[in-house]
Amino acid sequence: MSVSDMFIALQGVLTADQDIREDIRKVVQALEQTAREILTLLQAVHQGTGFQDIPKKCQKAREHFGTVKIQLDSLKTKFPADQYYRFHEHWRFVLQRLVFLAAFVVYLESETLVTREAVAEILGIEADRERGFHLDIEDYLSGVLTLASELSRLAVNSVTAGDYSRPLRISTFINELDSGFRLLNLKNDSLRKRYDGLKYDVKKIEEVVYDLSIRGLNKEATPGVGGEK
Amino acid sequence: GGGSGMSGKEGSGGFRKRKHDNFPRGQKREEKENVTPSSALMTSFKSFQLEIDTRHDKYERLVKLSRDITIESKRTIFLLHRFISAPNGEEILNESEVKLDAVRRKIKQVAQELIGEDVYQFHRAISPGLQEYVEAVSFQYFIKTRSLISVEEINKQLIFTAEDREETTNTTSSSHDKQPHTWSLKITPVDYLLGVADLTGELMRLCISSVGNGDIDTPFELSQFLRQIYDGFTFIGNTGPYEVSKKLYTLKQSLAKVENACYTLKVRGSEIPKHMLADVFSTKTELIDDDGLP
């Protein structure tokens, strides 16, 4: 094969690669749009009036996750299944965002941390790499960290809205999350950087709890301190 | 609970215990872990720990292998540069083949680490080593055949069999039974291109040193070959990733140096006796060596 033939062949490969990336980018854009819609929907819980119908908002958000499923299904068809990490960068950000949104919904519904398997199910993807388009563990953990900062904000706004018990429950939850993350040996990467922000969320919530407890406001709602729920 | 014990260590007697509970630093952190040590959340984080550690360990092993591959490939290239000046060319070629075999054994270990994995997940760990290998193997191929090795040709040599197990001590034992009898590692087109781009730097050096040795034919051959590669890269242009287009600039410089050398040979070669050519280029060589060689 002559040198120029070789380069013509390589150019063909690279062009095909570009086409795939182009296709992926289109789907990812649609996914980002859906994610924004869900976020807008859920942001309402921070408003005083939004506290009343949290279940209804969660219900609506879950409907939107149906769209997410369809879009992710279409994403799967855009590239060879065994080349997930080759194109990972393209959907990494939006997938982390979706994990956060799913985790937020689940938290609002049940005040528990969504498992990796459950998120994968909500998004219509796999938790295991072997079985197809999956949720990378670091993406899952990043999404969970976003949830922590959202919840520290929710704690503040709960107090404003007169809900004094929620911050205590959030505090227990975030503390457990913090203990969980401290088990991990993270490398000096983006996940590590985001984890470094968790301590500020912990601090923020504890200040809220402190403010409530010195004023005796915590006893009003819950009989025992620390939310045994 | 544990509060009475810590007030003594604290040293600032003004605080009351209740306050400590609400400002958790230090001691409180330990307490928190005792809240629910075996909750569902903690159990799953323990499995995450294992998963992440396993992944990082593999990555580190691959980085180390890649570094070894780089070092050995570089040594092979140095060895091959002696080919022109040495009277015993065959011997050097054989020696380089032995060295490349050693590199391939390392690549085999890489391939074993990657059995059942998504190669692209660890690509960043091994990419530098593979590029260097492409450079070495294509340099040797050029010296032997005066042509460019194709990516398929390179990959053909990276198919391994399970025959010689004795070298496989580094790999995990758990997957041994499930191992296929042959497995392979494929150089990606981009790694190939980057390796070939580096090759042109070596060819430029080869050109200058061969002039120094009074070899007048090799420079012309090289300039033609380099021009073909340069044309190839121009054809690809910015279709490829950023790294490839970045190399294009260095490639152009290498080509210019070789073309200038040929020019000088053409213009002055007839005037200067062969044995003095080395002197003509010795001053030039210094200039060339100054800028931008890897």
UniProtKB/TrEMBL annotation, chain A:
Main location: cytoplasm
Pfam families assigned to the protein according to its UniProt record, in alphabetical order: Translin
Gene3D superfamilies xref list: Translin, domain 1 (1.20.58.190), Translin, domain 2 (1.20.58.200)
Gene Ontology CC annotations of this record: cytoplasm; nucleus
Highest rank taxon of the organism: Eukaryota
Subcellular localization: Cytoplasm; Nucleus
Record's keyword annotation contains Hydrolase: yes
UniProt entry keywords in alphabetical sequence: Cytoplasm, DNA-binding, Endonuclease, Hydrolase, Magnesium, Metal-binding, Nuclease, Nucleus, RNA-binding
UniProt keyword Cytoplasm, yes or no: yes
One of the GO BP terms on file: RNA metabolic process
Positions annotated to bind Mg(2+): 150
GO molecular function: endonuclease activity; hydrolase activity; metal ion binding; RNA binding; sequence-specific DNA binding; single-stranded DNA binding
Family label: Belongs to the translin family.
Assembly description: Ring-shaped heterooctamer of six TSN and two TSNAX subunits, DNA/RNA binding occurs inside the ring.
Function: Exhibits both single-stranded and double-stranded endoribonuclease activity. May act as an activator of RNA-induced silencing complex (RISC) by facilitating endonucleolytic cleavage of the siRNA passenger strand.
Record protein name field: Translin
UniProt lineage: Eukaryota, Metazoa, Chordata, Craniata, Vertebrata
Gene name of this polypeptide: LOC101868507
